[in-house]
Design a protein that fits this description.
Length: 314
């Protein structure tokens, strides 16, 4: 039987940095711990690689948590080039730019919460005044200004226009607009942001959301890239849209999947990288890893370690 490297124990100290821990985890032979260390190497490589377009894909739920700050930091430092996400990402980014969400618990009385006008997202509490009614009050006038006189806009254009009107530097849309990072939302109507678009359409029936222009923009990005890499947290439409478009150039060159889903039911969310190889969405020779675990744990660790390696690159 072939033998790999010897397993080494992790040696902790009270002054250890995240990056120093990751370096030791690479040699620990420790199941998902070693995968996490390998993910850091792959993310660092795709960011440093000349001519590599880096995609970031994630679902809305983590934007309701403090992990939003990690995603914002990636955009602020221009470490990713393209974002593909869900409509709820826009909802939570905007809502939290204007009001707070709160700590809760997975086992709270949900019926009681509803009577109090509070929605529960896992262990995060989202009061109506911090979300639905707030977005109606704040987003409606912004969309009125953005869309007035327009006949057709892509999701990328709408999101960028809203981002240009944000002043809160904790906002992802603020930094994506400022740094020219396109944000694509293929499921634009699946959230409060989309509902506000629909409300505007009630009195402006000639408006069209041009999804085909989004697809053309993605096509141009894909075929103009020497290489592509992707950091993919979770699954769903944002994950699939990322790997779907990359199949047209022969697959991703670098990819890290962060997932809590199992693959036994055939779901896209649980599908491992090897399945994407069979579809041509990831190259057979790609630098790749699937890291099982909650992205609110794995993504901050990966990004913190990469930032240390990049030495404060802004």
């Amino acid at each position: 039987m072939a033998r790999g490297r010897p397993v080494r124990d992790i040696k902790l100290s009270d002054s250890m940095t995240v990056e120093e821990l990751i370096v030791q985890m690479r040699h620990s032979g420790g199941f998902t711990g070693r995968k996490l260390a390998e993910a850091v190497d792959i993310v660092e490589k795709m960011i440093r690689k000349e001519g590599c377009t880096v995609f970031l894909s994630f679902p809305a739920c983590i934007m309701a948590t403090g992990t939003r700050g990690v995603i914002v930091e990636l955009a602020r430092r221009k470490l990713v080039d393209v974002i593909i996400t869900t409509c709820g990402t826009l909802d939570h980014d905007l809502a939290r730019s204007w009001k707070s969400y709160y700590h809760g618990d997975f086992f709270m009385d949900d019926a009681a919460l509803r009577r109090e006008g509070i929605s529960r997202l896992g262990n995060v509490l989202v009061p109506d005044e911090s979300y639905g009614t707030l977005l109606e009050e704040k987003l409606g006038p912004i969309l009125q200004e953005v869309l007035e006189g327009k006949r057709s806009l892509s999701t990328r254009e709408i999101v960028d226009a809203v981002g240009s009107r944000m002043r809160n530097k904790d906002s992802l849309l603020y930094w994506c607009h400022r740094n020219g990072i396109p944000v694509f939302v293929p499921g634009i109507t699946d959230g409060a942001f989309g509902s506000q678009l629909w409300m505007y359409w009630q009195t402006h029936r000639d408006l069209r959301v041009d999804l085909f222009r989004d697809e053309q923009d993605l096509s141009d990005i894909i075929f103009e890239s020497k290489e592509t890499g992707a950091i993919i947290a979770g699954g769903g439409i944002s994950k699939h849209h990322t790997i779907w478009w990359n199949q047209f150039r022969g697959g991703l060159d670098h990819v890290v999947y962060l997932t809590t889903a199992a693959e036994y039911d055939g779901s896209l969310s649980g599908a491992q990288v090897r399945e994407a190889v069979s579809w041509g969405k990831v190259k057979e020779t790609a630098n790749e890893i699937t890291v099982e675990g909650d992205a609110t744990i794995t993504l901050p660790i990966i990004v913190a370690s990469v930032l240390k390696r990049l030495g404060g690159r802004a």
